[in-house]
Design goal:
With 145 residues, this protein is α/β, with parallel strands linked by helices. The protein has helices at 25-37, 68-71, 89-95, 97-106, 113-119, and strands at 15-19, 53-57, 73-77, 84-88, 122-124, 138-139. The protein has a single domain (15-139), classed as Ribosomal protein L13 (Ribosomal Protein L13p, Chain: A), CATH 3.90.1180.10. The chain has five helices and six strands, in the order E-H-E-H-E-E-H-H-H-E-E. The radius of gyration is 17 Å and the shape is globular. The chain starts with 14 loop residues before the first strand and ends in a 6-residue tail after the last strand.
Length: 145
């Protein structure tokens, strides 16, 4: 008997919708990263992309635990002199609310060519509407995160 190994041709990705309203960022990011990688499927293969497409709506209604809205900050650096930007979490929520969740998930997906492909399967929307109705997404229920 041989071991079954999935590959990109045999993988059958689904489209899943997650409502991020009143969810904690880190706990939600773990669930999303596992769905993108395909770790929830019995056909999970570490060297193949067997994950699903994930649509996240209401990304502007996520929450942090503790005092992170005041203390957490996001840093970018352009590699030019004086090119460092530090943005507080409250300002990031006001300007680019999807970016909070995207950065949390991006840091949980492995780096490399396969991880870069997997993070592209994440579709984030600040409001309750999304434009992927043609893919017939299925709602993914979160169990008490």
């Amino acid at each position: 008997m041989s071991t079954y190994m999935a590959n990109a041709q045999t993988a059958q990705p689904q489209w899943l919708v997650i409502d991020a309203a009143d969810q904690v960022v880190g706990r939600l990011a773990v669930v999303i990263a596992n769905l993108l990688r395909g770790k929830h499927k019995p056909t999970f293969t570490p060297h193949a992309d067997t994950g699903d497409f994930v649509i996240v709506v209401n990304a502007d209604k996520v929450k942090f635990t503790g005092n992170k809205w005041e203390t957490k900050s996001y840093q970018t650096y352009s590699h030019y002199a004086g090119g460092q930007k530090i943005i507080p979490a409250k300002e990031m929520l006001r300007k680019k609310p999807e970016e909070i969740l995207r950065l949390a998930v991006k840091r949980m997906v492995p780096r490399g060519p396969m991880g870069y492909k997997q993070i592209k399967k994440l579709k984030l929307f600040a409001g309750p509407q999304h434009d992927h109705q043609a893919q017939q997404p299925v709602e993914f229920k979160l169990e008490a995160i």
